[in-house]
Amino acid sequence: MEFIFISPGKTKEQDIASICDHYVKQISNHANVEWMLVKEAMDDRARETTNILEQLEKIKQNSSTAPAVFFLDELGKEYESLEFANVLQKNWGNGRRPLVFLLGGAYGFDQATLSQHIKKYNAIKLALSRLTFTHELARLVILEQIYRALHIQRGTKYHH
Fold first, then answer.
1. Domains in the chain, please, with CATH?
2. What are the DSSP calls for the chain, one per residue?
3. Minimal CA–CA distance to 56: which of 141, 137, 113?
C-alpha cells in the first residue's frame, strides 16, 4: 500500500509539522508514505495548481497501476470516518494501487483546472469539513484520518 501526498511548500508551523511527522511515521508502519512538495505560487492559484498536477502526471507515468487520486477541496464530498475508511479500501486495490492526495495551497485549487482533471483522473473531490482550515492544518487532518482509516480496517481500538 502506498500513500503519496502532493502539496505546495513545507509546513512552517513547527507544532503542526511535528504532529504531521508523528502521523507519517505511524502510517509508515503500515504503508509506504511519500510527501512531494511543489513550489508555492501565492499570488497565482492557477500556477500552483499546475505545479501540483505536473507532479501527479509524473506519478502516473512512473506507476504500473493507475493511481487513485483525491483532490482535497472545500467543495468536495464530506465523509464520516467509517465511510472514508471504506472509500480508501475500495480504491487501494488490494494494496497495489497508489493513493495520491493533492492538497492546494493557501487559496486552494484553481477550480477551472480542477474540474478538468477530476474527470481526466476519475478523481474523488474530498472535503475535510465545511469549516475552513489553513492548508497546514488540512495536512494534519488528512494524515490523522488516514491513520484512523487504517485502524478501522484492522479493527483496532484507535477508532471507537
1. 2-154 (3.40.1280.10)
2. -EEEEEEES----HHHHHHHHHHHHHHHTTSEEEEEEE---TT-HHHHHHHHHHHHHHHHHH-SSPPEEEEEEEEEE---HHHHHHHHHHHSGGGTSPEEEEE-BTTB--HHHHHHHHHHHT-EEE-S-SS---HHHHHHHHHHHHHHHHHHHHT-TT--
3. 113
- What is the C-alpha to C-alpha distance for residues 82 and 152, in angstroms, rounded to an integer? 7
Strand order in the sheet with 124-126: 32-38, 2-8, 99-103, 68-77, 124-126
How confident is the model over 5-22, as pLDDT tens digits? 999 988 899 999 999 999
Whether this prediction's pTM lies above 0.90 is answered by yes
Residue 5 cell numbers, joined: 501526498
* Per-residue model confidence (pLDDT) at position 160: 67
> Does position 23 have pLDDT exceeding 90, yes or no?
yes
